[in-house]
Request: fold
Amino acid sequence: MRKLTAVFGLLLSFNVFAEYGLNMTEGVTSISRDIYGLHMMVFWVSVAIAIVVFGAMFYSMFTHRKSKGAVAANFHESTKAELIWTIVPMIILIGMAFPASKTLIDLEDTSKAQMTVKITGHQWKWQYDYPEEGISFISNLSQDSKDAVNGTDAERENADNYLLDVDNHLVLPVDTAIRFLITSNDVIHNWWVPDFGVKQDANPGFINDAWAKIEKIGTYRGQCAELCGKDHGFMPIVVDVVSKADYKKWVAKQQAAKAATLAKSSKTWSEDELITLGQKVYNTSCSSCHGVTGKGVPGAFPALKGSPIATGPIEEHMSIVLHGKAGTAMAAYKNMLNDADIAAVITFERTAFGNQMGDLVQPSDVKSAR
Amino acid sequence: MTTATTTSHDDHHHGPEKGLMRWVKTTNHKDIGSLYMWFAFIMLLVGGAFAMGIRAELLQPGLQLMEPQFFNQLTTMHGLIMVFGAIMPAFVGLGNWLIPMMVGAPDMALPRMNNWSFWILPFAGGILLSTFFMEGGAPAFGWTFYAPLSTTFAPDSTDFFIFAVHLLGFSSIMGAINIIATVLNMRAPEMKLMDMPLFVWTWLITSFLLIGAMPVLAGAVTMMLTDRNFGTAFFDATGGGDPVLFQHIFWFFGHPEVYIMILPAFGVISHIIPTFARKPLFGYSSMVYATAAIAFLSYIVWAHHMFLTGMPVAAELYFMYATMLISVPTGVKVFNWISTMWRGSMTFEAPMLWAISFVFLFTIGGFSGLMLGIAPADIQYHDTYFVVAHFHYVLVTGALWSIIAATFYWLPKWTGRMYNEGLAKVHFWWAVVSVNVLFFPQHFLGLAGMPRRIPDYSLQFADFNLISSIGGFAFGASFILLTYIVIDCIRNGKPTTARPWEGAKGLEWTLEPKAQYHSFNTPPSRKLIEAESQNS
Reply:
């Protein structure tokens, strides 16, 4: 009986403890609120059925026991009872199916969208493209979280939103119906922000869609929700929802930054500049497979230290970074990194890990190799 | 078929061969049943050890014990070993031991094939486990091995995994054929189908699920094999394939598989509750029809595992409605069990404790299953710890619970000895408390947003993970006591009578206290069958 009370106590206190992360979030979109409503409806229906069914069971267990002198009856069939407990659940189910169908049809209808964001999953980071605004960037787990994974408890507590923070946030305007086009560049990922009620598989070679009209300014966090390999647990999502005016400012700033980057790739870079940028790019884009020290993971990801690519002809090195290697986990970076990034990271890979090739790759070389 | 199997031992009554070769060469259903049960138990401990590793890493935030890649290997192998190495072989073992005795047959219909289908298993399991020691490590793509993570992006050891799955499939299909042939051809001539005990009925229906589902799994891994090695592109979009196709094929196997692991459990519970309520099973025929209905529905709901893959809305609606329907026949079963208990004369020996806690905890898993079936709500539940909690409630406190219940219930018949009831009760309460400490908080973790299959988590999930891990260690330790109780029963248990449970019905209880090596060499009479029938 104590166990029963404890379990029921926990179940009934669901609402009370909602703020402490026991229950599903209500979220900030009409869809997420509908989902929450469905969740609570089915939950309370289940609780009601549980009280009746388990109530009968426990009553029977305490009353109809041999030690209390109970003598067994001999009934073993009742068509009437069987009909009742077939038909009543059917009616309850039909009652639940109506609101569930309505929500499902609503959330699958992306035709009302006022703007589009394309989301591409990569092992193990997200790429965001604003096709209409011409903005594109990659979003990686933030460095202090990465450092704290193998660090102390204190480091994890001091890290900003440990494992739920990224370097580049997705920025979206409030009160705008946004269509998300979701796809992947390698394996299946899943883009999930609980507060939006959006969770959709990112399938390589196919595009899925989802939509959200976010009603509240704020920062929202989510994670990849489909096992996508080694660092599946380390590719979070952070979305800043801002006012429409702030969003316009942000877009203008991004476009200006893009123009500046383009200008940079036409100049000739010094070795120091290339190595400094290259190390940064390597740590965010390459090190999760090839290792911070270039040793790779035996049997899974090749080492770069002394590798035939990193110590071979520059053209082949550039080609594999730009176009990837078919049939392996090596992705094509031509759409993820700009000319300067690629030039810098190749230079870094050929200089670091004791490779000491001493040759420089300029952004202009990359541009012509594309 | 009947003549072929009886000629080998109709002249003289002989016992088992001596020594190790007895177990290698045996064609006796009781020997093979024991082999299956011990194999399943060892695999349960191996899979459990992986689970302990998983819970140890999740005890607190940060990575303390292992690399993420090894964590993924553990979750993958934990799932594969538990499903294919522990739960399924344990049920085949129970079927081997019990079905011939329950239908009044001298042995299984195909005894040599029976030997073969068992002896494939240790090799398949060995191949699967050996991948841990290969370059690149064991498969790390989850027990559902979704492409392309399991094809283009998987280590070379994956080909050994594919071979192991093929072998396990052969074994299961042969086991299923054997059970169908035994039930339909070897049943006592006087026993009608509607005289059969429910464990036999549920296994007969499960066998048809196995024959339908396992070849589909074999197809899926074969397509993986050719994608990986022979240049096909079934699941590779760059070659015109579709990764979602893999999921359709996998779950067309995977959903019937869920019921392969639970229908025999329903059968076990339908034996234990009437025995200890001292009252006939309520609604025998509706139990049979409900089992058949669940089996049929299990083939047409597979895509409820795939609500987020981008299916058209009409398909999502269909799979949601079909999934909700399953709760009707499942509900019928629960209501029937409780009606069986109602106005009975109950005692609470260990098998009954396990059976009642099965009804309670499996139903909780059923409720979370109903919630998961609501397609829009599944958006928030999918691939979170809510799902982990759900399927552990139905597979641990469902399937595994029924196997433990069955072990205590029929152990006297298998050994002729009684287990230590006091210790068994201690073990029960230890396990049932710890398993809830282990899995109940995972509902909260999932609802609060913790994805499954992650080796590390943000700090807001720390408290419930700590509680869950502590429950996990306690639950894991309970199996040490279980091992002791079973071995103690075999070696030192008090000799028991032919029918140690007062209310037990069934042909197996008419045999000697320890069922003789060859039973029912002459089929039971109509009178005996009627007296022992659950359908009274």
User: Anything to note?
Assistant: The mean pLDDT of chain B is 94. Chain B is about 65% helix and 0% strand. Residues 2 and 186 of chain B are 7 Å apart (CA to CA).
